[in-house]
Amino acid sequence: MIPEEQNKALDAWQTSARYWDKYRVLIAQMFAPLTSGLVEEARIGIGQEVLDIGGGSGEPSLTISCIVGPTGSVMYTDPVVGMVETAQAEAGRRRLTNIHFRQCSADDLPFADRTFDVAVSRLSAMFFVDPVTGVREALRVICENGFVSFVVWGPKEANPFFSTVTDVIDRFVEVPRQNPDAPDIFRFALPGKLAGILENAGAKNVIERQLNFQIKAAIPFEQFWQLRTEMSETLREKMAGLTPAQLPTIKQAVADAARGYFVSGTMNFPAEALIVSGRKSSA
Ligand SMILES: C[S@@+](CC[C@H](N)C(=O)[O-])C[C@H]1O[C@@H](n2cnc3c(N)ncnc32)[C@H](O)[C@@H]1O
Questions:
Q1: How far apart are CA 109 and CA 119, in angstroms?
Q2: Of 174, 152, 271, 161, which Cα lies nearest the Cα of 227?
Q3: Nearest to 273 by CA among 154, 128, 124
Q4: Where are the alpha helices (H) located in 79-232, listed in sequence order?
Q5: Pocket mutation for ligand 1, best pick of 35, 78, 111, 151 (most atoms within 8 Å of C-beta)
Q6: Which residues are within 8 A (CB) of 225 and not within 5 positions of it... i.e. 6 or more apart?
Q7: What number of H helices and E strands is found in the chain?
Q8: Residues lining ligand 1, judged by CB closer than 6 Å?
Q9: Rounded CA separation 19/6 (Å)
Q10: Chain centroid to CA 86: how far?
Q11: I need a surface site. Which of 13, 49, 132, 137 has the fewest CB within 10 A?
């Protein structure tokens, strides 16, 4: 990615930070199965030193800080200052003392070799500027035989939480042809793609697991619509290109498409993610 595109992407995340903070309780609830999956795959337990890469509004760092307990610690990282600030403020509200914060990008981690036991990343690897360098960096800073685990979204077709909105909007706006290797939520949806990067980066025992779960929360369609259109930069950009007259039509079409996922005021979408893990080889 050229530096100009990179800055634009980080500016977009900076704008997103306030929405990720606004919806933090829902985000924690909706994506909790992904955190559990990462914790299990990376064998995280009491007393470990854990690195979280691209921690956003604070997950999985906040959950992991409770799992590792006072004898362990978590290093939260994210390149976007707004994300770091919201995560740090939440850790303060919860009075967590075993979690530390650094503003940095995955491809240039400011830590010595073998600083951590484990490195994890939830829903962030798709946005790394250079995923091979990002994975190499994660492996560099963990101890020999330590685990790295990344969770990424599976294919769009298996994730109606996203596609019910984008499929409708894309009928109204021109969608530029996408480079499959450009940062995007579905960049690593293809089985084997991220696993191949881990292997190229030198990880051993690379395993890819498909995680099927439900994105559940007690919210009606209206709140889902608000959450989706605020949190995603891609959607904010597309919505800005619509005429005011198009908006109600689109919202109604999305409501119709999403009807089956809202029962008695509760949202319940099937979802699919991939958890890709490996271990650092002995020198
Ligand atoms: C979809 S959010 C996920 C946040 C959080 N881990 C979660 O699951 O709620 C993606 C995060 O990746 C971060 N990110 C973007 N580019 C990155 C990079 N080059 N290195 C590390 N993180 C990056 C963004 O700032 C954002 O916080």
A1: 12
A2: 161
A3: 154
A4: 81-93, 131-140, 160-169, 193-200, 221-231
A5: 78
A6: 165, 251, 254, 255
A7: 11, 8
A8: 13, 27, 31, 53-57, 59, 78-80, 83, 105-106, 122-124, 127-129
A9: 21
A10: 16
A11: 132
Could you list the pLDDT tens digit for every one of the 283 residues in the chain? Answer: 677 888 888 999 999 999 999 999 999 999 999 999 999 999 999 999 999 999 999 999 999 999 999 999 999 999 999 999 999 999 999 999 999 999 999 999 999 999 999 999 999 999 999 999 999 999 999 999 999 999 999 999 999 999 999 999 999 888 777 888 889 999 999 999 999 999 999 999 999 999 999 999 999 999 999 999 999 988 998 888 888 899 999 999 999 999 999 999 899 999 999 999 999 998 6
> Contact, 125 vs 54, CB < 8 A?
yes
Question: How many Å apart are CA 187 and CA 154, to the nearest integer?
Answer: 9
Backbone phi and psi for residue 103, each to the nearest 5 degrees, phi listed first: -85, 110
CA 92 to chain centre: 22
**Whole-angstrom distance, CA of residue 225 vs CA of residue 250:** 11
What residues form DSSP beta bridges with 153?
273
Which residue's CA is the nearest one to ligand 1's atom 22?
54
Query: Would you call 185 helix, strand, or coil by DSSP?
Result: coil
Element (H, E) at 208: strand 203-217
- What is the Cα–Cα distance from 235 to 233, expressed in whole angstroms? 5
d(CA 277, CA 63): 19
